[in-house]
Design a protein that fits this description.
Elements lengths: L1 H16 L3 H13 L5 H26 L24 H23 L4 H24 L8 H19 L1 H6 E7 L16 E8 L14 E10 L11 E10 L1 H7 L3 H4 L11 E7 L4 E3 L12
Antiparallel strand pairs: 1-2, 2-3, 3-4, 4-5, 5-6
Helix pairs in contact: 3-5, 4-5, 4-6, 5-6
């Protein structure tokens, strides 16, 4: 595995030596930071971007995710049941990450000169393909396996992004967000630290004409889900699968009213903690609980 990576790096370094550094740098810069000069160049960039993404996933998977360590196999991960590995948080993670990848790819394609409608389609397809390739790699992993549940979640994320961009009225009214408050003692990486994450849809009052000219435009309703204690369960007193309805502040709308419109757009995708009041139900204890009456990161030992 390490030898494969070393060989790849040596090959790339030898290849780079054959190209004048200034020319190579200019080529990379022009290919990324400047719009395409023709339709052919634009589509070449889209193709090469997807090939580069596929190569990165493959190399990374072989190095760190034990890809190609077994024959392809299915892995039934189920959905949000009590006996699942993450209580379903990983499925929402797949949905959100594909949604965010769709935003990234489509923004890049549009910057290169693709029209908005096409960039939304190509961006969503690129994101879905990127995630599907990782799922194929998982099928060759002894610790993972191919999960159709992940593919469904990825598809929902890509379709939601496309629908939200195609219909401005939907985009003005509904956000898909991640709330993340790091727990530096909780272990895991930032991509799978589910004990620190919450996923939610937000219905923004500012998207309704009747509320655009009064203080209600700064409010929103939220529907969220999160788990605690499923990951690294041996370090927790109990498991939680919590769903909640929240009444919150539309942070992006507040910042826009202060003239920070571009900065405010970040909060269409990231939920700022403690800016809402949640009314929650825990499926594991089968009980309702008061807002903020439980530790944010769960009942750790």
């Amino acid at each position: 595995m390490r030898a494969l990576l070393l060989s790849l790096l040596i090959s790339l370094s030898l290849f780079a030596e054959e190209i004048p550094q200034e020319s190579f740098g200019d080529t990379v810069y022009n290919s990324i930071m400047k719009p395409a000069q023709s339709e052919e160049e634009l589509m070449d960039r889209v193709l090469y971007t997807n090939i580069a993404g596929a190569a990165l996933v493959t190399v990374w998977g072989v190095a760190f995710w034990d890809y190609f360590s077994t024959a392809p196999r299915l892995g039934s991960e189920q959905w949000f049941q009590h006996d699942t590995k993450y209580g379903g948080a990983d499925k929402l993670g797949h949905m959100y990450s594909t949604y965010l990848w769709s935003l990234g790819f489509s923004s890049l394609y549009e910057f290169w000169g693709m029209d908005t409608e096409r960039s939304n389609i190509y961006g969503s397809l690129s994101a879905w393909s990127f995630q599907f390739l990782m799922e194929l790699g998982d099928s060759f992993s002894t610790t993972q396996g191919f999960s159709y549940e992940d593919v469904v979640a990825n598809t929902v994320g890509a379709l939601f992004y496309y629908a939200r961009e195609k219909y401005p009225s939907l985009k003005n009214k509904v956000d898909l967000r991640l709330e993340y408050l790091p727990d530096f003692q909780g272990g895991g990486d930032i991509f799978t630290q589910y004990n620190s994450m919450k996923y939610l849809f937000a219905l923004k009052f500012s998207g309704f004409k009747s509320m655009q000219d009064n203080l209600l435009k700064y409010g929103e309703l939220q529907l969220g889900y999160y788990t605690r204690g499923y990951q690294n369960y041996e370090n927790y007193e109990q498991k939680e699968r919590n769903i909640y309805i929240g009444i919150g502040i539309n942070v992006s709308e507040v910042l826009a009213s202060w003239g920070w419109k571009k900065t405010g757009k970040i909060f269409n995708y990231y939920q700022l903690p403690y800016t809402y009041v949640p009314f929650s139900y825990d499926f594991d204890s089968q009980s309702y609980f008061k807002p903020y009456s439980r530790p944010y990161h769960g009942y750790q030992k």
